[in-house]
Amino acid sequence: MMTTDQARSAVVFPGMGPSRFTDVGKFMMIDPFVRKRLAAADDALGRSVLDEFRTAGTDFGAFAQVAFFINSVALADRAVETQGLAPDVCVGFSFGQKAATAFSGALPFAEAVRFTHELALCEQRFFEEQHQDLVTLTITRVPEAALDEVLGELAERGEFHEVSGHLDEGMHMVTMREQVLESFQRRISAVGGYSLYSMKPPAHCRVLTGLRARVEEEVLAKFDVADPELPLVADHDGALITRADQLRTLLLDTFDHPVRWHPVVDTLRGMGVRTVHVTGPDRLIHRLDVTTRAFDVVALGPEQALRPARTTSRKEQ
What we know:
Elements: E1 8-13, H1 21-30, H2 32-45, H3 49-55, H4 62-83, E2 89-92, H5 97-103, H6 109-129, E3 134-140, H7 144-156, E4 161-168, E5 171-177, H8 181-190, E6 194-199, H9 209-218, E7 232-233, E8 240-241, H10 244-256, E9 259-260, H11 261-270, E10 273-279, H12 289-294, E11 296-300, E12 310-312
Parallel strand pairs: 1-2, 1-10, 2-7, 4-9, 10-11
Antiparallel strand pairs: 3-5, 3-6, 4-5, 7-8, 11-12
Helix pairs in contact: 1-2, 1-3, 2-4, 2-6, 3-4, 4-5, 4-6, 5-6, 6-9, 9-10
């Protein structure tokens, strides 16, 4: 057991952005760590993940999700073998919970592959029936007061909206009807902010309690989640997850709880974590000011995998 005066480390599995074969296909074909995980995933699903991913027509489809999951776990494998990664705690941010569940030992890898695939299909069926008009937009450089002003305008017009995430100072995720997306983006620009990307189907909002219930009944009930061998930190409130029942709840909370990164940072700092390894195709977490201020950040994505990992030093407090 580590004493409290020893610096600890964490591994962070990032959330999923648009995942395209053209961006990561070559990496997946040549990286030995990915190839090993791909072979196990092919056996688990009875088909070639790479072939299915290559022919997929959507950035967030079932096999795009499986590919993202595999890449995240394989990049953690690489960090363990080549950099001596031996984390004291792990975090799965949004979609990254699936990789964290596998890496923590709560589900064997093959089971986690099947879970990821079945969950993606369940979500697809749900959104074919409900909430087809909703999107989740990530915005930045929007102070709380400005966000409240713009959201207040939506409320005055009776427009549905929910805040789906708080990522950094001025960076948020907002779910709304797709029909108002362009006008909302114009208002964000008018208050000095920027729109980064939108996700469809939407994520992390209370209106998706029906999806949560369906996943619990149709997917999660099939899998025997064990106590994690490595503790996890919940991505919406920073709670420490050490038991199977807590992890099962966390896997369901992701549907109808907004993600919040600051509580995760607070928990990791309170545990004495000084270095975080972000292992996966991350476009966000390793760049956030709140992350780089608090930790030494080692980013290992596909683009860094075949060259020495980049470390971002903590800024002076």
